[in-house]
Amino acid sequence: MDFIKDNLPWVGLAVFSGGMLLWQTWTAFSGGAGVSPMQATLMINREDAVVVDVREAAEFGGGHIPNSRHIPLSQLDKRLPELEKFRERAIIVNCASGNRSASACGALRKAGFAKVFNLSGGISAWDQAGLPITKK
Q1: Are 56 and 37 in contact (CB under 8 A)?
Q2: How far is Cα 103 from Cα 115, in angstroms, rounded to an integer?
């Protein structure tokens, strides 16, 4: 106990960093594998990956990745047939920050989609990387 008291800041840092590692592991298993905006761009250009935006209509209207398909998370189960034709292609799911898209990735995997990826950091990371956003 003396060691913990004497090194409380370091013990706290170790616990915090371990918790963050566990959180990342948990989200990777519950959703799709995370991809950076640059990795997503390569997948779109080289593999003809499909981008699915699961944000609400107002968020989508404020700006989205060009050619992305808008299917709000709340409607995903009902609108899965729209994605059936893309079952063999990579699907990149995005939202505002990556939380809703992780849930959507999990739902798509349960529905049998194998190549599902979560855009790490969501549309915010895409925008910060200087990649195009459209309102069309």
Answers
A1: no
A2: 15
Tens digit of pLDDT for each residue in 25-56? 554 444 558 999 999 999 999 999 999 999 99
What CA–CA distance (Å, rounded) separates 97 from 100?
A: 8
State which H helix or E strand residue 90 sits in.
Answer: none
Is 95 one of the annotated active-site residues of the chain? yes
pLDDT digits over 73-128, tens only? 999 999 999 999 999 999 999 999 888 999 999 999 999 999 999 999 999 999 99
Which candidate in 54, 76, 95, 108 is catalytic? 95
- Whether the CA torsion 97, 99, 105, 107 is positive or negative: it is negative
Extended strands (E) in the chain: 33-35, 50-53, 69-70, 91-94, 116-119
Half-sphere exposure (Cβ direction) of 103: Cα atoms closer than 13 Å: 13
